[in-house]
Design brief:
mainly alpha; Arc Repressor Mutant, subunit A; Tetracycline Repressor, domain 2; 2 domains; 10 helices; 75% helix; elongated
């Protein structure tokens, strides 16, 4: 009985994956408004009705598609940021966020299509897209606060305002890159934004210099 249950669960998981893969392709081609659940079912090699049976509605299917895509980006982009804190973590996250767009053109296109369509054609998706953006801004804000607590980032910086500005720059840059992937070198832009952020936020003066010299990361090795 347990083996049969596991086999059924595995088959369902695999068919759901195929449905979401097909949905990703069709939404990238047609947008959320143009991709029907029936078309997605057929494109995945199943019946026209299976997506509705599995997900309940087109809205829930799109939410599942966003969830899966966001999870993939988080695992791919931010997996190597463990242990990086404060200003170092902030600049590393900026570069990782921008470079993640190059890892999967289709997934990046879908996320941005859904973001813009949630403002007009698919307003029911707006809360999910808003929550995703809020999560990314919060991660940036927390790193800024951490950098301030460590004495690395100027105390007068407003973490919420700076995080919003940085996320806007990240999102705007990726949008431009989606329009002009051949003319925009995303790697160079990522490095420029990272370095500009470091220069504009870094604490300065004797107190910071003293703290920096005391850090194990900046001590001169003994000979």
């Amino acid at each position: 009985m347990k083996k049969r249950h596991k086999a059924n669960k595995d088959r369902r998981s695999e068919s759901d994956k195929r449905l979401l893969d097909a949905g990703l392709r069709l939404v990238a081609q047609k947008g959320a408004a143009g991709a029907t659940l029936a078309d997605i079912g057929l494109a995945a090699g199943f019946s026209r009705s299976l997506p509705l049976e599995r997900f309940g509605s087109k809205h829930q299917f799109l939410v599942a598609l966003v969830d899966r895509t966001e999870q993939w980006f988080n695992q791919w982009a931010f997996a190597e940021l463990q242990g990086k804190q404060g200003l170092e973590g902030l600049t590393a996250r900026i570069e990782a966020h921008l470079m993640s767009a190059t890892a999967n053109w289709e997934a990046t296109s879908v996320l941005y299509l859904l973001f813009f369509e949630s403002l007009t054609l698919v307003p029911e998706l707006r809360p999910r897209m808003t929550a995703m953006g809020h999560g990314y801004r919060t991660a940036l804000r927390d790193l800024i606060r951490q950098g301030q607590a460590r004495g690395e980032i100027r105390p007068e910086v407003d973490p919420d305002v700076e995080a919003t500005a940085l996320f806007g720059a990240i999102r705007g840059t990726i949008t431009l890159w989606l329009f002009e992937p051949k003319t925009i070198n995303l790697k160079r832009v990522a490095r420029a934004l990272s370095e500009n952020t470091r220069r504009s936020l870094a604490a300065t003066g004797p107190a910071w210099a003293s703290r920096r010299q005391a850090s194990p990361l900046h001590r001169t090795p003994r000979r």
